Amino acid sequence: MIPVADIAREIQRIGFRCQRCGICCSPVEPDSNIVMVTPPEIRRIMQSSALAWDEIAEPYPGKIPLDTGNRVHLGWCIRRHNHNCVFLEAQNCRIYHTRPGICRTYPFELSDTAVMSSPCPGLGQEISFDDAMALAQCLVDRYREEARDENQIRAVFQSLKNGLEIPAGTPAVIDCEGVKILGDSSKSRR
Fold this sequence. Notes:
Elements: H1 4-14, E1 36-37, H2 39-49, H3 53-56, E2 57-59, E3 63-65, E4 71-74, E5 76-78, E6 80-81, E7 84-85, E8 88-89, E9 92-93, H4 101-105, E10 108-110, E11 115-117, H5 129-161, E12 172-175, E13 178-181, E14 188-189
Parallel strand pairs: 4-12
Antiparallel strand pairs: 1-5, 2-5, 3-4, 6-7, 8-9, 10-11, 12-13, 13-14
Helix pairs in contact: 1-5
């Protein structure tokens, strides 16, 4: 893992200041603004907004096949309306203080060895070292959370191989907490 201070220096070298343009919340091309969100992030948004789970998130659009022949969704994404994030309102985020990690760190992403950036009008703008450090720490936190979630999802897949079953044709989502049967909140399995 790259040290946080080195990440901050790279962010400062690249430069970034959010322009509050809403481009990242709107599609530039089909599905370019899908925001993956974890169950803990969904719950934080629920607590701060009084919205229900299905008002915040929807299953990730694609499905993956299981050995049993079932096809399931892998994870959740922020719900969209007319292709825009449901929380985009007059170029502002209605859940800014509880927005998901991917939104907190956009346009940056961290790999094991590099800081990467996506196209964004805010790139190239001056950023203080303190702000770059805060953003770098958010990137490290996001990287660790994503790695943890990935490991937990692998464990869920292993439990499916070890006999946990999803009835044929049953719509389901696999996430870091287990298998969630869609349409019935009481049927969450691990």
